[in-house]
Design a protein that fits this description.
Elements (H helix, E strand, L loop, with lengths): L1 H12 L3 E4 L9 E5 L6 H8 L2 H4 L2 E6 H4 L2 H10 L3 E3 L12 H8 L3 E4 L17 H8 L4 E8 L1 H4 L13 E4 L11 H13 L3
Parallel strand pairs: 1-7, 2-5, 2-6, 3-4, 3-5
Antiparallel strand pairs: 6-7
Helix pairs in contact: 1-2
Length: 197
């Protein structure tokens, strides 16, 4: 019920319309990775997926932001988020373990490899998590996504979205290259998102 309300609200306020320019919506297990410019990004990208894919796709979100009050209810009951600890000093064990658990269960993920919001149109350099997941799960497709207008739909400090049409552009799956090092992979992944801008 809450999931349906979230999707309806997103569609009314910002649209979150999908554009599949290099891939198609399929039930293939995937990691969707996108630029991160707004608190709306998580729900916008998730809402852009067809209903059948939303059921098995879990956004990755920061525990410190999404684990309190109404946000916790939305994360848990609304879109079944995978919460991760960003502060390494508070993390016991592998900080990526919740993502491994979700992927091992057959779920797809929505990931923002910048690690934090960026108010510029193009993404910042990506953090290493996407690389490590790509190494551990070679059978999982890596699909770049560019979220257009989300940073303008909910500007920093704003509590109410501005009614702008946001688009989620889904690109072609990123191919793995044998023996590619971390820096090369992360730059190529970032460029795949930039090319969709």
């Amino acid at each position: 019920m809450l999931s349906s309300l979230l999707v309806a609200a997103v569609k009314v306020f910002i649209g979150a319309y999908p554009r599949w320019v290099g891939s198609r919506p399929t039930d293939t297990q995937r990691i969707y990775f996108a630029n991160h410019a707004s608190h709306l990004d998580t729900v916008a990208l998730w809402s852009a997926l067809p209903p059948a894919l939303r059921e098995r796709t879990r956004p990755v979100a920061a525990r410190d932001y999404w684990s309190k009050g109404v946000r916790k209810i939305i994360a848990d009951k609304g879109f079944n988020a995978v919460l991760i600890e960003r502060d390494r000093s508070k993390c016991v064990g592998d900080p990526l373990q919740p993502l491994h658990d979700a992927l091992d269960a057959g779920d797809s993920l929505i990931l923002f490899p910048e690690g934090t919001r960026n108010h510029e149109p193009l993404p910042q350099p990506f953090k290493a998590g996407l690389f490590h997941l790509a190494q551990h799960y070679p059978h999982v497709e890596l699909v770049p996504v560019y979220l257009d207008n989300a940073r303008r739909a909910l500007p920093k400090g704003s509590l109410v979205p501005v009614p702008l049409v946001c688009t989620a552009r889904f690109g072609a799956p990123l191919n793995r290259i044998a023996d590619e090092d971390k820096a090369q992979f992360l730059e190529r992944a970032r460029n795949a998102v930039v090319e969709l801008a």
